[in-house]
Amino acid sequence: MSFIWPFQSESSSQFERVDQGWDLQSTAGAPVYAIADGVIGRSNADPGGFGNDYPYEVLGTVPQGAPSNTVYYGHIHVDPSLIGKQVRAGQIIGYTNTTSNQNGSAAPPGWLEIGFAVSGTGNPVQHGEGATGAGAAMKSLLTGAAVGPGGAPASGPMSPAETAAIAGMQGGVQTWQQTSGAGPAPPMSDIPALVDYIKQNFPDDAWLLNVPEVATTLEQAVSAGLTPDQIKAKMQQTDWWKHTSQAQIAYDQLKNQNPEELNFRDPGSKANAVLANINSVAASVGLTGMSPAALQQVALQAMQYGWSNQQIQQHLGSMVRVTPNGAGVTSNDMALLAQLEQASGKYLYNPTQTMLNSYAQGIASGRMTMDTYNAFLAEQAAQKYPSMAEAIMAGATPDQIVDPLRTEAASLMEVTPGQVNFISDPLYSKILNYTPPPVGGKAQAPRVMSTSEMDTYLRGTDQYGHTQGARDSASDLSASILKNFGEVR
Description:
Blueprint: E1 15-18, E2 21-25, E3 31-33, E4 38-42, E5 55-59, E6 70-74, E7 76-78, E8 86-87, E9 92-96, E10 111-116, H1 133-142, H2 160-180, H3 191-201, H4 212-223, H5 228-236, H6 239-242, H7 246-257, H8 270-284, H9 292-305, H10 309-318, E11 322-325, E12 328-331, H11 334-346, H12 353-365, H13 370-384, H14 389-393, H15 398-401, H16 403-413, H17 426-432, H18 451-459, H19 462-465, H20 468-485
Antiparallel strand pairs: 1-2, 2-10, 3-9, 4-5, 4-8, 5-6, 6-10, 7-9, 11-12
């Protein structure tokens, strides 16, 4: 009996531990080859975290030094079309997992445990006998094995063990048909009858008839008389199933089998349960301005793509908008916009609409925080007001630094402190960007005015001339002139 290495190539990097079987590592989705001639079966149990659709192979004889004539290929997916059929050494019988182990355990993608079953055609197939003896026997058997597929099915009469294995597999299909009352399926030549048969006997799979990529595969599997478990395994081997997320598959199944679960008008629908969570996530981060229609769309997307709460928040954040509104801006999240504008005011910085939109989305999605925005404002303010840079970088805000000037200016100009706008009012913004006269012919750097400089500057403006203080000063000056020089008659 000749043996074939189970992968397309062999290297020492594939060799892992030896216990009940021999653990080997290949790439995710790699084909797995039969190591010898035999008959392929499919386990319906999960010993040791192998999954429920891994193959085993019944060999014609018991290899020398092996505990049985049945080889198991753990952690991989069997090719359903080979179940119950004879294969040649080197023929592809399945594929390694592309993500994680079939039952979600720690076995990595591309993993294979190959070993001997406890007994002949037993199903479920169990680990080999002994703690490590069976694994060592398998390693010894494969050492020096040829590399490369054999390809063609074996010819010639089957051994008694192979015949018994096929009879057992066929018996399983017949038992399912008898217990379910399904009877034999119509042939592929009668598609309408076959479709009706699928809808009646495979209601959990019938929705796949609406998926063009797998409908024919489903029809062929049912027509061939496979059991429900075998049909499921067949579907999972299609390209559509392999490249479609489980969340999308579940969503499509709901859409085709139970569309009422996607109806937001039904208070008890699954869609409404997901929507309640969407609203909760939105409220937790202050996103209160979203329209009901927009949130419903997010709920459907969350179901389709299997989003976590973090992903939901990120998507909601991307929907925040800060848009122009006359001379200012508005937002569909006014609470967040108010926070941004309040912070901007403390740093005497006037951000653009684009900046506000970018930071609003970043904060709402959880990628940024208000501390991120404050750090940006501090950097901008330090550049804009270099004379205050040291104090700003030490933690003070420009608004705190110039508050005494604001109070003094408000008193002098007879306005409220809130009306002293150092950011966008040219009258007051000049106070923070004052360039003193040259000293000794040397230009001076811009800085904040001193209190006396500001007093002199503001008293010289037209606006000051309309204040009561200015009128009182003028009246006092007139009275002083009359007193000193006499009234002119």
